[in-house]
Amino acid sequence: MISFMKLWLSLMILLFSALPVRADELVDAAPTLEQQIGQLLVVGFRGSELAADHWVMEAVRRGILGGVVLFDKDLQYPGSPRNITSSLQLKTLTRQLQQAADQLLLIAVDQEGGQVVRLNSADGFPQTPSHMQLGRLNDLAATTAAAQTIAATLADHGINLNLGPVIDLCSNSGNPVIYRYQRCFSADPQIVSAHAAAWIRAHQRCNVLTALKHFPGHGSSLTDSHLGFSDISETWSSAELIPYRQLIDQGLADMIMTAHVFNCNLDANAPATLSPQILQELLREQLGFEGPILSDDLQMAAIRDNYSFAESIKAALNAGVDLLLFGNNIIYDEKIVERSIRVIKDLIAAGELNAEQVERSYCRIQQLTQRLINSSAE
After folding, report:
1. Could you tell me if 94 and 158 are in contact, meaning their C-beta atoms sit under 8 angstroms apart?
2. Which CATH number fits domain 63-377: 3.40.30.10, 3.20.20.20, 3.20.20.300, 2.30.30.140?
3. Which one of 91, 153, 185, 219 has the lowest number of neighbouring Cβ atoms within 10 Å?
């Protein structure tokens, strides 16, 4: 009897092992360290059309790139288009990128409204008001409608992450990068919170992620961190944290983007993007934020002029940044993905970065993208 049972079990094993296995029945293989690191990168590239062997397509296909950021213009070639020229072209590009990925690829743009947009009316996209225009009107229905137009346009064109809203306060009329371009809702943090919440909820309805920026506040700065060192020690106020606290408490913070601003009262040694005191102690512990922290562009002069490529990566990750943003537009480097991964692997090997930090960041990002996938399936 025992022999018969053994023979029967053997036949069953042979039978079922010969049956085809559906793809949805396979258990995903654990990602390699290189793939985990790659998911921490959001990178810009040149091209409104991509050949199959384009370096960004290869990185996406290999699973070593977590996201891309799109621009309408190439800063090194004024007047030249970058990634966005028309509605049909953009849909084709994002579809091509997403199809190359074996998991959800973050496709990001800065589509704030007003002057800061990548999908321009000149290329056939809807024109929408700036944050400041909406804040001055102070009509939440109008803000919701404007944000709905933005979010629906992004979703229709395969973009799943909007790098906004800006929740910096309009606290300094001489600010050259926030106030000047009407990127803030108001000097009143309560008005900022209310309009940002309406803006975010409109994006949620269209299944588009958002990123609050620029933590811990860029609205009071006297200088532009794109161009160099920006010290807010004498101008910053704790009121700039109020919108962050309120939106985090409401569960409306998908991710938060850092500012490359320096405040000696918060950290005497490093700008916010590279500061454990600001990102870990203030943002995570005091404000209770648990989602991914996204750096502002690490190629901006505030970082690039003061830190080497490897130093900036090391400091950002050790400070608590989860997603490293390289716009690749201020300067351009086709090897940026490979260089970043190599630097991070070397830091881990040298004991200057804990591999568990990479794993924690990877898990935060996966939880957020899985939420987006689940929402799409509903």
Report:
1. yes
2. 3.20.20.300
3. 91
Q: Are 67 and 324 in contact (CB under 8 A)?
A: no
66-114 pLDDT tens trace = 999 999 999 999 888 999 999 999 999 999 999 999 999 999 999 999 9
DSSP SS3 for 90: helix
Domain boundaries, the chain: 63-377
Q: Which of 72, 267, 296, 297 is catalytic?
A: 296
Task: Give the model confidence (pLDDT) of 139-157 as tens digits.
Answer: 999 999 999 999 999 999 9
Confidence of residue 228 (pLDDT cuts 50, 70, 90): confident
Give the pLDDT score at 181.
97
Query: Is residue 293 a contact partner of residue 248, using CB atoms and an 8 Å limit?
Result: no
Provide CB contacts within 8 A for 189, sequence distance 6+. 169, 239, 240, 242, 243, 246
Q: How far is CA 345 from the centre of its chain?
A: 22
The contacts of residue 372 (CB under 8 Å, 6+ apart) are 104, 160, 207, 209
Give yes or no: 195 in active site. Answer: no
d(CA 204, CA 67): 19
**Set 226, 231, 249, 260: catalytic member:** 226
